[in-house]
Amino acid sequence: MASLTLEKINKRFGATRVIEEVSLDIKDGEFVVFVGPSGCGKSTLLRLIAGLESITHGDLMIDGQRVNDLTPPERGIGMVFQSYALYPHMSVYDNIAFGLKLAKSEKQTVDERVRRTAKILQLDGLLDRLPKALSGGQRQRVAIGRAMAREPKILLFDEPLSNLDAALRVQTRNEIAHLHERLGSTMIYVTHDQVEAMTLADRIVVLNDGYVEQTGSPRELYEQPASRFVAGFIGSPKMNFLDVDARAEGDAGCRIQVPGIGERVLPRRLAGDSDDAPLTLGVRPEHLTPTTAAGEAGFRIVNVEYLGSEAYLYLETSNSDTLVCRSEAPSPFARGERVTLDFAPQRAHLFDHDGRALPPADVEQMSTQATIS
Ligand SMILES: Nc1ncnc2c1ncn2[C@@H]1O[C@H](COP(=O)(O)OP(=O)(O)OP(=O)(O)O)[C@@H](O)[C@H]1O
Q: What is the C-alpha separation between 368 and 35, in angstroms, rounded?
């Protein structure tokens, strides 16, 4: 087990900047997930930590010791890749033992570690099999076993579930969560799948174009996204965004005019008192409440998606954007009908023209100050 500190890490490939000033403290035993869209630098950051790529600027510390110049084995890190990378001609036993034998461990130590690892990963009945005689999930467990057997201080996972089908993905995801609980090792996991990030992470790091956009627990990122980028990335179906005009409304926050919905006062603090600041309103599908509309009022339902436990209504706005709102299943609404929408102002978000979230209006503090003065 180990803690990890990244201090202003930068990576360039030639003139291309891929990682920009990434600073991060990862605690001993923490499960941290890097997420972000394709090409944002997730795998590169993981490979910098593993020692598979060199760091252009910045320091990487493990347990307080600078490790920039250490080789991957010297760093005490194990890595599991998306492609499993098992040796096809070797048995499960030999695949798991490979790194230990390479490190010239005693035969008895190798045997003990392989059997202990296989037991934890429930591979003990499969030790004589070749990889081709295993399911995708079992192969991925062997790949994890191979990384684990050397008892690394830190385990890194690069999209380890991408090659599995949906059911196996959920099962293996659960196994990784249990593994973390049992081993208590520091784990860093890369994925572009926000469900994996939400379910596995103690802490999520959202990357955008090589920068850290926000770091926080899954709940913090979901409920208090710092930017429109994070708000749109975390959550499925994603948050609805609407252009609105806003003006300051004293202690209460700001008043916005939402096309097709009406005026609402949101407990969010505007940067200045300027009238009519163009902002973006963000509301999650589960926070929009649909009601049958009279005549041509509201929004037309263009699709109803039935998912068994819930349904999603896809609604057309006047400027041809689509809004999504959750409804019970089976839905009382049908395609072609019109609905009006409402939402609780305290559940909505506002973003400025740079995409930064407006902070909450500290209504309590403001009224206390007013009382004191
Ligand atoms: N060896 C390299 N030489 C030049 N550019 C590279 C190299 N490796 C990665 N890149 C570039 O760095 C950027 C980040 O790549 P990286 O693989 O880290 O992204 P990612 O977030 O893991 O993407 P994905 O989810 O698609 O795997 C990309 O623009 C990629 O083209």
A: 40
